[in-house]
Design goal:
412 residues, alpha/beta, Alpha-Beta Plaits, 2 domains, four-stranded antiparallel sheet, binds flavin mononucleotide
């Protein structure tokens, strides 16, 4: 048994582990959430509530389309789902029941209002029901009304204003959930901070189109002959999530804890987000595909990683990779790499040769007789395309040359 612990304190609240369901159909009602807690999740962000007397949510159907690539199903997921279509009373009853039965687990109420009154009611009622925290949904990209979701999340003044209303109406820690459908997330996150937000969560889904039915000429999901540009999530969205989380973390003016979201499926994905500054981790699409049980691998994998390296707390490693991100103008360009092909591992497919010929610096020599590839180091510019197109893991690596000592291809 190692010394590592997955416990984190986020906004002053202790989580037994940083893993939470993100607000979505995976946390739709009490019975589902109870099963998730039993499976081992540290917290749940409940499906977004609204004041249903003012706006009755009706879900479009079908509302999902998986993004499939090259025979791999579900590389990403597009959804046209709305916030909760249950009544506020039903959801509040479920939140109260969950808190009664799972007092040590963290329950976060996700809320979305359409005016000051709504935000105030949702904040007060969530607190009364026993929620530990609030997450303000400023980011749903497909709300069936134009004054909500990501449109509000791109309006700094509105974000500041509604966060303030919530702050004035409850004593709970507030997380503001950001939209990635914006060039720069920082001004919005800073506006949320001015309004009183205690933390930022990112990302919600990315506006996208995943497929087109080429017979009816209609994008998918096809909702009675029409479609829409709606939210995209899952593994293919992870690089974009990582970008935004690191930018939030690295901004010294923001300095708020971050709940990281976006395509997290494994402990390694979660670790990546922790290394980029997330102290809390949220997941939806991977649960939609594999179920709540993925938490077991996530916890075990992260603990093993930490114990193997004598890391005792998540705090110790939070943000460590984000600190290594610099502006491209600051890259150290004195060094260059050249590719190294492992002759034993090379299967002679010639893919590296083709890619280097047609898209790089023609530095690979391919012997048609032996079907072996070698590198002409004098021509290699160290782009590493060959390594990335090679179908054999670890067949092509690279070594560094100091171009100050050895003038090299492309630097001569
Ligand atoms: C079907 C579906 C419904 C969602 N509903 C909500 C919602 O009601 N409120 C919210 O804040 N985010 C909602 N989200 C966004 C997720 O909470 C999460 O931010 C996003 O999916 C990225 O994480 P993932 O890649 O782990 O799914 C929804 C996502 C999906 C796929």
């Amino acid at each position: 048994m190692g010394k590592a612990s997955l416990k984190v304190t986020f906004c002053g609240i202790e989580f037994e582990n940083p893993f939470c369901l993100s607000s979505s159909p995976v946390g739709n009602h009490a019975e589902m959430c109870a099963r998730a807690f039993d499976a081992g999740w540290g917290g749940i962000v409940y499906k977004t509530l609204n004041v249903d007397e003012r706006f009755k949510v009706i879900m479009p159907s079908p509302r999902l389309n998986s993004y499939n690539y090259n025979g791999n199903k579900f590389v990403g997921l597009q959804n046209a789902e709305q916030i909760s279509d249950r009544t506020l009373a039903e959801n509040l009853k479920d939140i109260a029941e969950l808190k009664k039965n799972y007092s040590t687990k963290v329950l976060i109420s996700s809320i979305m209002g359409f005016n000051d009154d709504d935000w105030a009611i949702l904040a007060r009622e969530s607190e009364k029901a026993g929620a530990d925290m609030l997450e303000l949904n400023f980011s749903c990209p497909q709300m069936a009304r134009k004054d909500a979701g990501h449109r509000i999340g791109q309006n700094y003044e509105a974000v500041e204003h509604f966060t303030k209303i919530v702050k004035e109406n409850c004593n709970l820690p507030i997380i503001a959930k950001m939209t990635p459908n914006i060039t720069d997330m920082l001004p919005v996150a800073l506006a949320a901070k001015r309004g009183g937000a205690d933390a930022i969560s990112a990302i919600n889904t990315i506006r996208a189109i995943t497929d087109i039915d080429i017979d009816s000429l209609t994008p998918m999901p096809m909702i009675h002959g029409k479609s829409g540009i709606t939210g995209f999530s899952g593994p293919a969205a992870k690089p974009i999530g990582m970008r935004f989380v690191s930018e939030l973390y690295n901004d010294k003016g923001l300095n708020l804890p971050i709940s990281a979201i976006g395509g997290i499926e494994t402990w390694r994905d979660a670790l990546h987000f922790i290394l980029l500054g997330g102290m809390n981790i949220q997941v939806t699409t991977a649960i939609m595909r594999y179920g709540y049980r993925i938490i077991e691998d996530m916890k075990e994998g992260l603990l093993d990683y930490m114990n193997d390296r004598d890391i005792e707390t998540i705090e110790q490693i939070c943000g460590k990779a984000a600190e290594k991100l610099v502006d491209p103008s600051e890259f150290d360009i004195r060094y260059q790499v050249v590719s190294v092909i492992d002759e034993e591992k090379c299967i002679g497919c010639g893919q590296c040769y083709i890619s280097c010929q047609d898209a790089a610096n023609q530095a690979i020599i391919f012997d048609l007789e032996t079907r072996k590839a070698t590198v002409d180091e004098k021509r290699c510019v160290g782009c590493t395309l060959c390594k990335h197109v090679c179908p054999v893991w670890d067949c092509i690596t690279y070594r560094t040359v100091d171009t100050l000592i050895t003038p090299h291809a492309g630097r001569l």
